[in-house]
Every structure is written in structure tokens, then in C-alpha cells.
């Protein structure tokens, strides 16, 4: 079976057939292990390695920032182990939306297989990872992601409901003062550790809203767009669209810092439609 999967991957590469590219994050506290895995993955042209995290906390942040399709995850790591990463990512997704990637555990220990099954890991690889066994995991991920993409294409897009009350003014706290800002002057808002920062044309401060969803629900949906689980942007203040990783983009905003904001992969389709990309 492993040889069949490896041959299938090689055939796809040689024939040049249209294969959906999917993104991956590697997580391992041992650099040699992550380097070896990255080297093996070069033989799979439809797998794009976005980044490497060297501990669990870094992995959680990179998953939120990059929204990879697939995470190859070590189990034993200092600070936050692999299972802890999965639980943390799912907890954050429930609280603030966003996607949960598929996880492939990659470890030198076999005693975590049952727990990996419980957290619905896509596969369980034992180190040292053999190329034929990796091919099986990649093929499994490929099938799941292709099916998910096909289902998303068929699903009708629901219109964004208009909020019952659209606020034209926002309260922004800065330097222990409360400022009233016109909503149209807000460039973007972002949330970090439960605190929402509002960046306007000539002011930066904090909002008393508790979540990005709550803030968004009080603003004009034709003007404000949730491009990422952590960012809400004013579409009229987008200055530049920057190609980023394959099939993804960043937005350069029209604020003093020319802030660059990632567009999540689920929102890339809307970006293409909005700007005719």
C-alpha cells in the first residue's frame, strides 16, 4: 500500500496533472527532525511548507497567523506538547472562528497513538519517518482536502445579514481618554489576547467590545470585512493587495504604519471576487 501511494504521488508529479496545492506547517523541537521532514516533503509538489515551529506555543501562533491546511506535529515538546497544541487551537477556533487544520502526528514514541485517535489526528507517523509511509499520510490528507474543497465549491454563499443597528461612531480609548471615531475613519481592528485594538486614520486605541464578532455585528457589513480570524478591515482603506504564499494574499492598509494584514484562505475567494483578481 505504501509503495502504491508513493507511486501515485510520483505519477502526479510526472504527468503534471492539476493537483490542489495544500499548505503545511512543521512542528518539532528538534531541528534535525524538522529538516529531514522538510527534505522528504520536497518530493510531493502539492505540499507547500509554509513555516517551521520549534515549540508548541510558537505552533499555536503560526497556525492562527498562517492557517495551514495540514500540521505535522511532534508530541513531546517543552512548554506545550503536541496534544496541548491541538486542544488550544480548537479552543481558540470555537472562541474566535477560523479554521482548524488537520493534524498528522510525527513522533518517536508509539504510546500516544490512542490519544491521537481520540483527537482525530489524520495519521500517526513514527520517527525516523520513511518516505513510503509519509506518502501514505500525504495521500490521505490529499483526499480529505480535495473532498473538502469540492464541498465548499458546491455550497451556496449565504448573504451577510445586515445588523439591526449599524453604528456610525465608535468609542476608542487612548492615553486614558475616550475618543469618538467615525466608523468610516477606522482602518482596521485586531484582537490579541482578548483585547481589541482599533486603528483609525489619526488615532490608535482600544475598544470596549469583547470580541471581533461583536464589533463586526455593529458595523456596516458592506464596509467592514473579516479577512482573518483576528482582523476586521475597512474595505475602503485597503491600499494594496500583496501576493503572499501560493494562492494567498496580504492586504497593505492605508494607516500610518502601512500595516500588512493576512487574508485567511477561506476569505481568499471573496477577495478575488471583490477585486476581480
Care to describe what's here?
The protein has helices spanning 2-15, 31-41, 56-66, 82-96, 113-118, 131-154, 212-217, 268-275, and strands at 22-27, 47-53, 70-73, 102-107, 123-126, 169-174, 177-182, 186-192, 195-200, 204-206, 224-228, 231-234, 238-243, 249-253, 260-262. The strands form four sheets. It has a five-stranded parallel sheet with strand order 2-1-3-4-5, with helices on both faces. The chain starts with a helix and ends with a helix. The chain folds into two domains: 2-154, 3-Layer(aba) Sandwich (Rossmann fold), CATH 3.40.50; 169-275, LytTr DNA-binding domain (OB fold (Dihydrolipoamide Acetyltransferase, E2P)), CATH 2.40.50. The protein is elongated and about 60 Å long. Helix 1 crosses helix 6 (131-154) and helix 3 runs parallel beside helix 4. By secondary structure, it is α/β, with parallel strands linked by helices.
Write the layout of secondary structure elements.
Elements: H1 2-15, E1 22-27, H2 31-41, E2 47-53, H3 56-66, E3 70-73, H4 82-96, E4 102-107, H5 113-118, E5 123-126, H6 131-154, E6 169-174, E7 177-182, E8 186-192, E9 195-200, E10 204-206, H7 212-217, E11 224-228, E12 231-234, E13 238-243, E14 249-253, E15 260-262, H8 268-275
Parallel strand pairs: 1-2, 1-3, 3-4, 4-5
Antiparallel strand pairs: 6-7, 8-9, 8-12, 9-10, 11-12, 13-14, 14-15
Amino acid at each position: 500500500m505504501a509503495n502504491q501511494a508513493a507511486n501515485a504521488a510520483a505519477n502526479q508529479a510526472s504527468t503534471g496533472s492539476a493537483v490542489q496545492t495544500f499548505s503545511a506547517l512543521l512542528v518539532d523541537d528538534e531541528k534535525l527532525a524538522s529538516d529531514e521532514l522538510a527534505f522528504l516533503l520536497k518530493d510531493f509538489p502539492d505540499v507547500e511548507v509554509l513555516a517551521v515551529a520549534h515549540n508548541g506555543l510558537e505552533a499555536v501562533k503560526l497556525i492562527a497567523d498562517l492557517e495551514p491546511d495540514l500540521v505535522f506535529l511532534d508530541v513531546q515538546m517543552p512548554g506545550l506538547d503536541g496534544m496541548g497544541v491541538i486542544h488550544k487551537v480548537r479552543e481558540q477556533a470555537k472562541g474566535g472562528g477560523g479554521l482548524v487544520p488537520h493534524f498528522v502526528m510525527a513522533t518517536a514514541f508509539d504510546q500516544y497513538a490512542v490519544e491521537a485517535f481520540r483527537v482525530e489526528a489524520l495519521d500517526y507517523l513514527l520517527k525516523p519517518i520513511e518516505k513510503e509511509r509519509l506518502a501514505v499520510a500525504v495521500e490521505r490528507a490529499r483526499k480529505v482536502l480535495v473532498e473538502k474543497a469540492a464541498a465548499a465549491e458546491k455550497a451556496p454563499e449565504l448573504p451577510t445579514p445586515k445588523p439591526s443597528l449599524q453604528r456610525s461612531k465608535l468609542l476608542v480609548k487612548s492615553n486614558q481618554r475616550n475618543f469618538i471615531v467615525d466608523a468610516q475613519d477606522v482602518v482596521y481592528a485586531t484582537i490579541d489576547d482578548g483585547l481589541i485594538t482599533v486603528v483609525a486614520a489619526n488615532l490608535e486605541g482600544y475598544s470596549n467590545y469583547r470580541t471581533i464578532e461583536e464589533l463586526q455585528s455593529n458595523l456596516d457589513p458592506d464596509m467592514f470585512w473579516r479577512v482573518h480570524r483576528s482582523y476586521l478591515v475597512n474595505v475602503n482603506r485597503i491600499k494594496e493587495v500583496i501576493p503572499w504564499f501560493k494562492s494567498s494574499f496580504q492586504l497593505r492598509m492605508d494607516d500610518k504604519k502601512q500595516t500588512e494584514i493576512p487574508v485567511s484562505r477561506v476569505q481568499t475567494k471573496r477577495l478575488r471576487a471583490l477585486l476581480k483578481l
